[in-house]
Amino acid sequence: LPGDFEGGLTFEGGRAKALSSGLELDKGMKLFPKTSHASYQEIMISQALDQHFKKERENWIRENAGENPAKIKTLSLFFIDSISSYRKENGWLKNTFEKLLRKKLKNAISKETNIEYKDFLEKSLENIAECHGGYFAEDAAGKGDEQIQNEVDDILRNKNRLISFKDEKGEWILRRFLFSKWTLREGWDNPNVFVIAKIRSSGSEISKLQEVGRGLRLPVDENGRRLSEEEFRLSYIVDFSESDFVKKLVSEINTDGGKVFEGIISDNIIDELISIKYGESRREVRNKLTNEKIIDDNEKIIDSGKLQELLPSSGVRKDKIRNNPKKSTEKVKLRKNNWEKIKQLWLEVSQRYMIKFEELSEDKIFEIAKKSIGKNLRESEIYNEKESLISGGREIRSEVSRVDSGYTLEAIHYGNFLKKLSQNTNISPKIWHEAILSKNNNFEKECFNAISLANIIRDFKKVFEKEFSQKFEYNKLDFTANTSLIRNGEWVEEVSKSMLGAFSSAEIEVDDRNLWNEICYDSVNPEMEISKIKPAEKVLVFGKIPQRAIRIPLFTGGTTSPDFIYAIKNNKNIEIDLFIEAKSENLKESDKIAINSQKIFLNTVKTEWRKVTSAEEVESLLRDFSKE
User: Fold this and answer.
1) Tell me, what's the pLDDT at 591?
2) Is residue 320 part of a domain?
3) Last residue in a domain, options 193, 215, 242
């Protein structure tokens, strides 16, 4: 198994294809790294069911909706990868879902006091298979058994039945958990989806919008009345890789006043068309849009251009859509005659250096290890972050909450735990062992888990950085390596424009003393403003320093380079080399480390170095260094 799966977890094989933890594997199953308790899908399904039953009870009781309110049928939608894992008789996904559903139902029944809802839950427990259904592309051909066709009919064609509670015989209609691989494009549209769980790999941005769009419609109660006066929440459960998508979605929807020109036409758009007298009612608006071939018979938008023309202020802002930049192939030429004036300096700073730390005693190292452990050795439960989309009026907003998944992390064998600590910190396992014993000699084995390991390593790095921020120096090595500017001791002809900056400007005049034939920068303030400065005559040459041109080593790993260089001649004809690091005022910890390293290194090679936050500071420095 991959190294991420620690704690002595092994593949036992056999007919069951099981791990040493007892978890049976199936094709398409994904596992949570660092735990063998539950699969990735199982945790997400469990979370989705918790959300479903919470919303289902709220929509059934509707405590704040007046006297004897109509119930709302609550649906949940699952997007999955492996169709066979759901359709097969003993498919892993179906069996796991039914196992979890059975457990959640028993728990809900034991606590329920509403007689009618309790009866609904009990009938669900008696008929688990009737509670869920799936629709996949191959189902459209009409092949398969009768049960599958009933599921397809309910999902695709019998929308009113799906959001009803009882059939004509007075029997409960239990189906409310729906499975699909992609968005249900073939005309399916149901306003009562309150939970979407995405248990499959990511699709395109459009497919994500279509998925979420299934839950962004105003729900309908059991009497068929669309509920526009209340606030409803969609729970969209995804993995960490899409954590930014909901934020982006909320921003896009709200900026456009709730208008989304993909998929099924929204009630927000219908209402806005009524407000501009396109029609007097929602029905009239929908009929006109259908007649004008803007939407089809299933209310899907088929001509977004025409629709946008009907709406006021529906144009796209000029900064709303940005071209995803490909890696730049453009080049910027060096002005070699200017670079030659600082070649000796450049050979000096581009020489290789090593970092030498002050030696620490074993007692000091022990104290650092002990401090890093802190309170990090404890059992760790897995939490999920839940981000809900909330529809209120014409605005969509999100709320994030932390939810206990009900799972704990598997312990890592103590020997492996010490070994990993040593590998990540260069401190011997013996010292780590002694530091752990000094904190407590009776830790439970569950305390040695992946989260504890990560937290100790994280805190060690913080302590290390604080301890050594001023306790190192640079020692020159006897060789000069190639950099982005020098190859085999000679200047290169040109460098990639992206190494100088993400942006360029033809409007800024390029001074003859500039090291480049074009102005490039990464930020408007301060970099672009600094590039506009026309230095005094005593500045011989100046310009932007490209990435990887100096490569000052950092004690935390990696390298850093300053942003600008100015070669200045004073009244005694002694050249002063001024390096500038341009930063905003709000510095991250990594920026502070890089800045301090630049300062120490450039003092070693006897140059001047300054950090600035504005072009005005640079102008002031240049005046000071240019004074006679």
Assistant:
1) 83
2) no
3) 242
**Quick one: what percent of the chain has pLDDT higher than 70?**
72
Residue 206 has pLDDT above 90, yes or no: no
Domain with 465, as residue range(s), is: 359-383+408-470
Domain match, 582 and 535 both: yes
Least confident among 156-170, 246-260, 488-502: 246-260
Indicate the SS3 state at residue 330. coil
Give yes or no for residue 625 having a pLDDT over 60. Answer: yes
Is residue 282 scored above 90 in pLDDT?
no
Residues 6+ positions from 41 with CB-CB distance below 8 Å? 29, 30, 80, 93, 96, 199
Across the range 442-452, mean pLDDT stands at: 81
In a domain, 316, yes or no: no
Q: Which of 63, 141, 132, 137 is nearest to 96 (CA)?
A: 132
| Contact (Cβ atoms closer than 8 angstroms) between residue 505 and residue 518 | no
Instruction: Give 3-state DSSP helix, strand, coil % of the chain, rounded to 5.
Output: 40, 20, 40
Q: Amino acid identity of 524? A: V
For tokens 């909320």, the residue is 250
Rounded to whole angstroms, how far apart are CA atoms 526 and 75? 52
Number of separate domains in the chain: 4
The alpha carbon torsion through 127, 130, 131, 135 (nearest 10 deg) reads 160
The dihedral built from the CA positions of residue 21, 27, 31 and 37, taken in this order, carries a sign that is negative
Is residue 126 in a domain?
Answer: yes
Task: Output the pTM of the full model.
Answer: 0.46
Which H or E run includes 102?
helix 92-111
Task: Report the C-alpha gap between 396 and 33 in whole angstroms.
Answer: 34
Q: Cβ neighbours of residue 587 under 8 Å, at least 6 residues apart?
A: 595
Are the beta carbons of 444 and 380 closer than 8 angstroms? no
User: Could you tell me if 528 and 609 lie in one domain?
Assistant: yes
Q: Does 257 score more than 50 pLDDT?
A: no
On the question of pLDDT at 332 being above 90, the answer is yes
* Distance of alpha carbon 26 from alpha carbon 13, whole angstroms: 12
Contact 62, 69 (CB under 8 A): yes
Instruction: Tell me if 516 sits within 8 A of 540, measured CB to CB.
Output: no
pLDDT at 294: 85
Asked if residue 523 has pLDDT above 50, the reply is yes
- 215/278 same-domain check: no
